[in-house]
TrEMBL record:
The keyword NAD applies. SUPFAM superfamilies: NAD(P)-binding Rossmann-fold domains. It comes from Mariniflexile fucanivorans. CDD domains: UDP_G4E_1_SDR_e (cd05247). This is UDP-glucose 4-epimerase.
């Protein structure tokens, strides 16, 4: 039986780490990426870590004909892990149609092809943004889905709905949506990591770039939130732990352990850390004093979000093992390697 897995957006931050874990587990991996927000050099990093080069195809999934041709050619793919999407919240507010086209059309074209297969397994890269400011913490999978704060967040909600509705009418399709909290860090080898093209979208690249002198100052958006130090709280998960959750979810689908053909799991550590705690932890592990400044709150930022991971721990047999310190040490090693 084939063990070939397609990873779309497989040269991106999370995708590349998932490819490494899949290859380490003996899967054959095909990567599709249009290189719009990634670099072909990541392929070298993956190969250096695993001693095996994944198959790579440069392809834009918005091209429906190209997607049809790909699945005609590669009929032995047994699973798809779908990362290929635009993910900058601020940019999505300014360019909503780009986000709806890129994040929804590509999903639809892939699902249309998977519907035609005898059996298919699909993992969707979703996000805790679907919960908005949750009514209670930690956040369980049964927490209400709130109105999205951005077109990006909305594409994750609509994406989940599209998959759920497709699974209802497709017995041959099994899918899992993984709702990530805040992925940070890099592979311990520092051969792959979070490659920020242009202005970073996340806190940790801002921290490491400020630490190394690429940026003069780090902005902390608000210190008047109702939290212990006034800054926002998030659940920061090491990207390697997150990658391993994808392997656990994929094995569940392949082994047919799921009774329902559509499932949702939170993927986080179950622990919240404030922005100032992350900054202080970074200063501790790097011996760098960070130049940061408190500025006005950012629109759309929730006060606090961290996961209840009980379901993923029990059902997937997966648990986050790496700490905030581990993640920041690896992120700093990656940043220094870039320079």
């Amino acid at each position: 039986m084939s063990n070939k897995i397609l990873v779309t957006g497989g040269l991106g931050f999370i995708g590349s780490h998932v490819v490494v874990e899949l290859q380490n587990e003996g899967f054959e991996v095909v990567i599709i990426d249009n290189l719009s927000n990634s670099s072909i050099d990541v392929l070298k990093g993956i190969t250096a870590i695993t001693k095996k080069q994944p198959i790579f195809e440069k392809l834009d999934l918005r091209d429906k004909t190209a997607v049809i041709d790909f699945f005609k050619k590669d009929q032995d793919i047994i699973g798809v892990i779908h990362f290929a999407a635009s993910k900058a919240v601020g940019e999505s507010v300014n360019l909503p149609l780009l986000y709806y086209e890129n994040n929804l059309n590509t999903l639809i074209y892939i699902l249309q092809e998977l519907q035609n297969k005898e059996t298919s397994n699909f993992i969707f890269s979703s996000s805790c943004t679907v919960y908005g400011q949750a009514d209670s913490l930690p956040i369980t999978e049964s927490a209400p889905i709130k109105a999205a704060e951005s077109p990006y967040g909305n594409t994750k909600q609509i994406g989940e709905e599209i998959i759920r509705d497709t699974c209802k009418v497709s017995e041959n399709l099994k899918a899992i949506a993984l709702r990530y909290f805040n992925p940070i860090g890099s592979h311990e080898s520092a051969k792959i990591g979070e490659l920020s093209i242009g202005t970073p979208q996340n806190l940790v690249p801002f921290i490491t770039q400020t630490g190394i002198g690429k940026r003069e100052q780090l902005s902390v958006f608000g210190d008047d939130y109702p939290t212990k130090d006034g800054t926002c709280i998030r659940d920061y998960i090491h990207v390697v732990d997150l990658a391993k959750a994808h392997v656990a979810a994929l094995k569940r689908l392949i082994d047919g352990d799921n009774t329902d053909n559509y499932e949702v799991f939170n993927i986080g550590t179950g622990k919240g850390s404030s922005v100032l705690e992350v900054i202080k932890t970074f200063e501790e592990v790097s011996n760098q004093k960070l130049n940061y400044k408190i500025v006005d709150r950012r629109a759309g930022d929730v006060i606090a979000a961290y996961a209840d991971t009980t379901k993923a721990n029990k059902v997937l047999g997966w648990k986050a093992k790496l700490s905030l310190k581990d993640a920041l040490i690896s992120a700093w090693k990656w940043e220094k390697g870039l320079n």
